[in-house]
Write a structure and sequence with these properties.
The complex is a heterodimer of chains A (about 260) and B (about 375).
Chain A lengths: L6 E10 L2 E11 L3 E7 L5 H9 L6 E6 L2 E3 L4 H7 L1 E4 L11 H5 L6 E2 L2 E2 L1 H14 L16 H12 L6 E5 L7 H16 L3 E5 L3 H7 L2 E6 L2 E7 L5 H9 L5 H4 L3 H4 L2
Parallel strand pairs in A: 3-10, 3-11, 6-9, 9-10
Antiparallel strand pairs in A: 1-2, 1-4, 4-5, 7-8, 11-12
Chain B lengths: L2 H18 L5 H17 L6 H26 L7 H19 L3 H26 L3 H20 L4 E3 L5 H7 L1 E2 L2 H28 L7 H23 L4 E2 H19 L1 H11 L1 H6 L4 H27 L1 E3 L5 H19 L34
Antiparallel strand pairs in B: 1-4, 2-3
Helix pairs in contact in B: 3-10, 3-13, 3-14, 4-5, 4-6, 4-13, 4-14, 5-6, 5-13, 7-13, 8-9, 10-11, 11-13
The chains are: A alpha/beta (about 260), B mainly alpha (about 375).
Chain lengths: ~260, ~375
């Protein structure tokens, strides 16, 4: 695909105390493209999402947004650029209602006084456009089912008309019909020119919507595949390490000199 | 003809709410009624205008402290130092006013600022160094009690003027009927207008909204409570200034927590620190600020306690004040953590303005739908 990538990571590394969570990660997401990020547990997928969304800034490396290097040190920085995130643990406030959760951090207000009517109107509108049925938008999140919460979390990410969507296991607790709806939605967004980074364990979801698959293994890049020309077995063996090549196995200086 | 099915549906709704625990302030009001009945049986003067008037002034000091601590409880923390801070504020005021000879208004401002600053210090230690709030404020309780004893000197009591500004806080009463009944009418009218305007906006946006008859019924109820409060208090010395200030603080805190961005951030922090952080809430700042609010209102409450005795003494800073202040909001706190406290558009601005004096007990647990 031609043109500059929307988001590019160059040599991003992050460590937590003794654990090297990410090592020299390279990743590109273009506008109008769905990139699937796959990897086994503890491969560093969620850490990478947090790096991009500003929750856990990287120790090393450069993040480029539309070709120019940017600093994403806080969640606000990411949303300012147009990056919206659905976290695996959803990260919503159980005691607040749906409207409050959707607008948390970007409330509509006049001189600090909330405009609840306008926020509720937009919430209803958004839920309607996404054909999501939630009977009462004023119930606290704690009273919703897991699937409904997931839907709310996804809805929240659409609120600020983002340019890049990070979805960390978005289909984990969705039913079959909701999953299909979400996949349709992702395709629709891609056609509108958004970039999507989709994290999933579900190969059929990935086959259905992703254009490219980036594999992480033990915090390192372990291959980049075109979904249309790669077999599922190839991707899986890359995830599990059955097709490890010498380069990926070479120990880094950190490992040799802890 | 359709009255009976509607009644049945209403009864079913009540039963459901009883089962699910969504009764809002009803249990609190029932308990309050029970307390009143018991004490009235024990002493027939309990519900006399004189006693109610005195009670309505007596609760203000503790009530202020309690409102402040609600902010801390809402983010899921505790401030044990508020009682000591209240005592310290009284002592600072008395020492500056009597021993240093400073003007009363300046001493009041300095005492309240001290409360704010100490709250900020507690919040800073908690939010920045992650010392548990329990530990920080317990240490604060001991340290500020010590400072208070030091300030009070060998007599451990400082008397100040009975005609001054601080004494007037609890001794001033307004009995001009034009003012007292006018205030009740104003509160009722503001409640009605805010409710109707809110309803109009919701209806215009095509959203479900409350029936107009319901708004009128609520307004009528509010009017009954407001006017009967004024009428009862009028039969003694009139409307106490302390009660007015307290209700003002109560309404302001209510609006701040439910209707502003800041309040939303406080509630979000109580619902999930990580979620709030990822939504861009400045967790450290909000944490420090709630301790500042608690400290400020504790100092303010301490001045009311001192005003009651026109003196600052060790009594005003004892643990009882802390217990009294923490108990009501804490008993409502399980309801907070269960998600009952939530912002909502349906709560109207002035609904709390004329609640009975002790109704702040139910303040923290009141779901907006029933306001």
């Amino acid at each position: 695909m031609p043109g500059q990538p929307l988001l590019a990571l160059r040599g991003v590394s992050k460590r937590f105390a003794a654990v090297q969570a990410l090592v020299d990660i390279e990743l590109e997401v273009r506008a109008g493209e769905v990139v699937a990020l796959v990897g086994d547990n503890a491969a560093g997928k969620s850490t990478l999402v947090k790096v991009i969304s500003g929750v856990g800034p990287p120790d090393k490396g450069v993040i480029e947004w539309q070709g120019s290097a940017v600093q994403i040190r806080r969640p606000q920085d990411a949303s300012g650029l147009g990056i919206a995130t659905v976290y695996q643990d959803l990260a919503m406030c159980e005691n607040l209602d749906i409207v409050a959760n959707l607008f948390l951090g970007r409330e509509i207000h006049r001189f600090g006084v909330l405009d609840e009517v306008e926020m509720e109107r937009r919430t209803r509108e958004l839920l309607h456009t996404l054909s999501i049925r939630i009977p009462d938008v004023r119930v606290p999140l704690a009273s919703l089912s897991g699937g409904q919460r997931q839907v709310v979390a996804i809805t929240r990410s659409f609120l600020g008309s983002p340019r890049l969507l990070l979805l960390d296991e978005p289909t984990a607790s969705l039913g079959i019909q909701q999953t299909n709806q979400l996949l349709d939605l992702i395709e629709e967004l891609r056609d509108q020119g958004l970039g999507v980074l989709l994290i999933s364990h579900n190969m059929s979801d990935i086959k259905a919507v992703a254009d490219r698959v980036a594999v992480l293994r033990l915090g390192r890049n372990n291959g980049l595949f075109d979904v249309n020309t790669t077999s599922q077995e190839q991707i899986i063996s890359s995830i599990t390490g059955a097709s490890d090549h010498a380069v990926a196995h070479r120990p880094s200086p950190e490992e040799m000199w802890p | 003809m359709n009255v009976k099915p509607r009644l049945m549906a209403g009864a079913e709704a009540v039963r459901r709410r009883v089962r699910e625990g969504g009764l809002g302030p009803a249990p609190v009001l029932l308990a309050l009624a029970a307390i009143w009945v018991v004490f009235q049986c024990l002493n027939e003067r309990f519900l006399s205008p004189r006693n109610l008037s005195v009670l309505s002034v007596d609760i203000v000091g503790t009530g202020m402290v309690a409102v402040g601590i609600v902010f801390v409880l809402l983010i899921g923390e505790i401030d044990l130092s508020v009682g000591a801070l209240a005592g310290l504020a009284g002592a600072i005021f008395a020492a500056l006013n009597v021993e240093v000879g400073m003007a009363e208004w300046l001493a009041v401002i300095l005492a309240v600022i001290c409360g704010t600053a100490i709250g900020a210090l507690h919040g800073f230690l908690f939010a920045t160094f992650h010392v548990p709030a329990f530990v920080v404020t317990l240490a604060g309780l001991l340290a500020w009690s010590g400072l208070m004893i030091l300030l009070l000197g060998p007599d451990s009591t400082i008397h100040f003027s009975e005609d001054g500004l601080v004494a007037a806080l609890t001794s001033r009463h307004y009995s001009a009927p034009g003012f007292t009944y006018g205030l009740a009418a104003l509160c009722t009218a503001v409640h009605l207008l805010v409710s109707l305007r809110d309803r109009g906006r919701r209806a215009a946006a095509g959203m479900p909204c409350r029936a107009v008859s319901g708004i009128w019924a609520r307004t009528a109820l509010l009017a009954v409570v407001a006017f009967s409060t004024v009428a009862v208090l009028d039969r003694f010395e009139g409307l106490p200034l302390a009660l007015l200030i307290f209700l003002g603080v109560l309404v302001a805190s209510d609006l701040l927590l439910r209707r502003t961005r800041y309040g939303r951030q406080v509630l979000a922090l109580g619902g999930g620190v990580e979620a709030a952080r990822r939504a861009g809430v400045d967790v450290t700042l909000v944490r420090v600020s709630v301790f500042m609010v608690a400290g400020t209102l504790a100092a303010f409450g301490g001045l009311f306690v001192a005003s009651r005795f026109t003196s600052a003494s060790q009594v005003s800073g004892t643990g009882m004040l802390l217990i009294n202040a923490v108990a009501p909001p804490s008993s409502a706190a399980p309801a907070c953590s269960a998600g009952v406290v939530r912002p909502g558009p349906r709560c109207s601005g002035c609904s709390s303005s004329s609640r009975s004096p002790r109704a702040w007990r139910c303040w923290a647990s009141r779901p907006p739908s029933s306001s």
